[in-house]
């Protein structure tokens, strides 16, 4: 007789079996498995991502609309640069996973060598203060916003964040993808608006789009920014130009380039949104197509109504299983043998607990848990009574003998049965001939 399993013992045994040897070989892997709330580097990366959002807005704005730094923006920019400078120092002490050997490298000299070969130069350049850059750059490049555009290198952090969130099961994949598409669209519109204004303000204003607004009150910096955003959104949405359009060759060339970019961006947005929408309805569409094909097959072959109902019931059950994520066999087959063994141990303990406390009304449940291994697996069949109509079925577990199955049928249907038949009328005299999922009849 099995005893009631102790969940703590089961979890301890599974942990030792799955991770015991690995923890001896790679003791630092635990750092990679810690939760986000308990992982200071992850919190720091998230904080820097919010600073990148600020950089993504302010750098194009300073490039297009400002010739001299304002005090609030200059202070804020230097504070943000200081945080990224701290991150450069911290990167020299962060271990990384070698993609060639899949080992966690924590030696400082290897970390420094790898960082120097990859992103160190770009990270250092993007943190240089604008005041220092203007003092050392040649006169043609001393425009305030030129050097600040190099800070857009930090956008790679946002891309890495979205790639990580798409794989995180704690976040909804649909909304993560939608957020990414919205961010890409907003940044594209904002960047184009700032560059469009930059072309106009560095040219004779009488021959640019700045001469189109007639109201002088609309020519303050905020209204000009809103007007530029209006032009950018109108161009992106391809609704055509009305009161605001390019006036000179430079503006027209930029407009052509922006429209070509919009072709790719629009395709990217429509493709991603279509994929997200279709993914949510593809299961239902496949189910309806399968049902239509099965119905046509049944009609062509003139199958009995009962058999048609069984076919449709099976397809519906498979659809519900797929829809609710209950594909047990497919999931188990996709796992490695070590995890499948742990699942088997857990299932055995759970079944022992079940057989100790299950209702023994059918008279065989307790015996099957201590029969010396006569039954290697549980089988479920649909049991019908010939006298009450074959369509009246009850789902039961297969016992260890034909007589026990007849006793179960007697209790379920209230009759005294003497034999077990298949749906074709053939008599079954051996319980081992019954397979899981069969439909059998007692008479």
UniProtKB/TrEMBL annotation:
GO CC field: monoatomic ion channel complex
Chief location of this protein within or outside the cell: membrane
Subcellular compartments: Membrane
GO molecular function, one term: voltage-gated potassium channel activity
Entry's transmembrane regions: 47-66, 78-97, 174-200, 221-241, 253-278
Name of this chain's protein: KHA domain-containing protein
Highest taxon listed in the record's lineage: Eukaryota
Membrane topology: Multi-pass membrane protein
Entry keywords, A to Z: Ion channel, Ion transport, Membrane, Potassium, Potassium channel, Potassium transport, Transmembrane, Transmembrane helix, Transport, Voltage-gated channel
